[in-house]
Amino acid sequence: MLISGKILPLDRSNIDTDQIIPARYLTGITKTGYGVHLLEDVPGTPINNPKYKDAAVLLTKENFGCGSSREHAVWAIMDKGFKAVIASSFARIFEENCYNNGLVPVKLKSEEVEKLFKQSNCEIDVINQVVKLESGEIFKFELDPLKKEFILKGGFLKYMESKVSLVKTWEKTAS
Amino acid sequence: MAKSVFEKVWDSHIVEELPGNNYLVFMDQIVAHEITTPQGAIEIDEKFGGNLYASERIIAINDHVSPAKDTATAIQAKVLRDWAKKHNVKIFDIGNNGICHVVAPERGYVQPGMTLCCGDSHTGTNGAFGAFALGIGTTAQAGAMLAQCLILNKPKTFKIQIDGKLPLYVYAKDVILAIIGKMTFRGATGYVLEYSGSTIESMSMEERMTMCNMSIEAGATSGMVSPDKTTVDYLWGKEVITKDKNEFEKLKNKWTSFATDKDSKYDKEITLDGNSLKPKVTWGTNPGEVIDIDGEIPSDADEKSLEYMGLKKGQKLYGLPMDQAFIGSCTNSRISDLREAAKILKGKKVSIPTIITPGSQAVKRQAEREGLHDIFQDAGVLWTHSSCGPCLGMSMGVVAPESRCISSTNRNFPGRMGTGSRPHLTSPAVVAASAIAGVITHPKDI
To answer: What range does the domain containing B30 cover?
Structure first.
């Protein structure tokens, strides 16, 4: 799985899910259609800058996706066409939501993130867990070994379903 | 080996160890609301034959925008309502509902030693009971509905020791804001917090819920308080708890067995002096950007936060004019919060538009039995039915761009209470005092 394309830079830390997709748009019962409002409450948002049209990688800093648990944040990012988010850290629920939907959460060191802010494109090799810069420089990143499979093949709910009989057996012995 | 309340609950709910630091963790209770449930519920119905693992372990609550404000939110509520009916899931709906983190505890659904999840980040509220309760996304919630489990990384433990007697007009909200300010907005990522010490021991369950509610605001997976007599006393008489004294005695023994053992070890610890705390107010765009009510905005304050909030370094918040006031949300909308606000508002008039939204319809009815609604309305406050309301800028008092709202809620992110809105988070008492004065004011000065 290779992700290659333009970077949308969001040069801030602590962008919470309210800024990613404001609550006033959480009135749907589907997972689609949220992309048009992506990042619209971020002060000075670059989202509508034509320079970043069709960007595939969202680049930001610390604690991205903090706040509300709304999975709509991940759906909005994917709906807009992004395939990966690079940050120096993620909030727990957001990161989990990324895995469950196949959006790649790439965690890099702060100094690597800073270097990426000077780039307009990059390539992410998900299987080998590396980010390649146009200069040829390479940054390695970690992915959860179990949840990586959900990114590559999907199937989180099928996996959970496959655990039902085990859980039932456990419940009998636990009670 | 001595174990903390978290370790006891965690260890008793592990179904399977999975690759990585992952565990399949059994969930005793799932709470589902209308904003984050429909997509997952529909997916289970369409692709998994509607096979819920245990519908009796789920409660559904229409809470975020209830009653609906428009067709879209009416459809969300209807989807949850119809789904609950179809699957025989207990639902709390118009007339009998409220914010899920207020309703579940007040009915007795949350008990010591339990695990609980909900598609809502403030689920940590329920940790006040010595339960391990956490917020999750829609898909993880759907997984829990299918297999009654979550896949979780084992969190680390973080003890927050708070001793001393809180001064007059200092509340649980001020304590948790002080903690978030101290450990920063993301300082607890990957940890479960345990609040302990004499300050916490003397807190009511409602105050403990306020503390645990905002654990997520420090990035924590959840917050917990070790169960004690206060916990047990609170649960007696609750709707879904046995009324049989012998049965209750057995439950009590089970619950208290989850209490933190003396000499439990933690991955991290901090201490806080409860005696010296002052009322807190946020100045910035995350809950960690907070100062004492009589303090000055720090010299190293984040420029972007200041610009958004229209404030300067060194500026005092005390005396800052407000455009609106709000008491409500899963953090501070319980009966004790309303009583504190009423003490300050009694016989006074508010000078700015002020809304008080009780945390549940049960809280509303109790407040009205005590005559609090008369105090509020005599003061010129709008007294509403229960909902999440303007806390997240969805309905019932959304704040205008560049307008300042003194608010008892939990989040002050850009746009949170409405596009361009400027929330200042604080306790219900400071909201009430500031609503009267029209500027940020200490309750002692009313």
So the answer is: 5-269
- C-alpha gyration radius of chain B: 21
Contact A166 B304 (CB under 8 A): no
pLDDT at A174: 84
On whether any CB of chain A is under 8 Å from the CB of B148, the answer is yes
Q: Sign of dihedral through CA atoms B332, A14, B179, B116?
A: positive
DSSP conformational letter for A59: E
Neighbours of B271 (CB within 10 A): 10
Q: What is the pLDDT of residue A71?
A: 98
Contacts of B415 in chain A (CB under 8 A): 18-19, 22, 41
Neighbours of B66 (CB within 10 A): 27
**Are B188 and B144 members of one domain?**
yes
Residue B185 is predicted with a pLDDT of: 79
CATH number of the structural domain spanning residue A16: 3.20.19.10
Can you say whether the dihedral through the CA atoms of B399, B402, B404, B407 is positive or negative? positive
Q: If phi over 0 gives left and psi between -120 and 50 gives alpha, with beta otherwise, what is residue A28?
A: beta
Check residue B69 and give its pLDDT.
96
From B120, B307, B415, residue closest to A69, measured CB to CB: B120
pLDDT digits (tens, 9 = 90+) for A117-169: 999 999 999 999 999 999 899 999 999 999 999 999 999 999 999 999 999 99
CB A38 within 8 A of CB A21: yes
The nearest CA of chain B is from the CA of A135 a distance in Å of 32
Give the C-alpha separation, B271 to A25, whole Å: 40
Alpha-carbon distances, residue B310 vs A22, B283, B303, B404, B430 (angstroms): 21, 10, 10, 10, 21
Tally of domains within chain B: 2
Alpha-carbon distance of B316 to B441, in angstroms, equals: 11
Reported pTM: 0.97
Percentage of chain A exceeding pLDDT 70: 99
3-state SS assignment for residue B353: coil
Range of the domain at A169: 2-174
pLDDT tens by residue, B163-209? 999 999 999 999 999 999 999 878 899 999 999 999 999 999 999 99
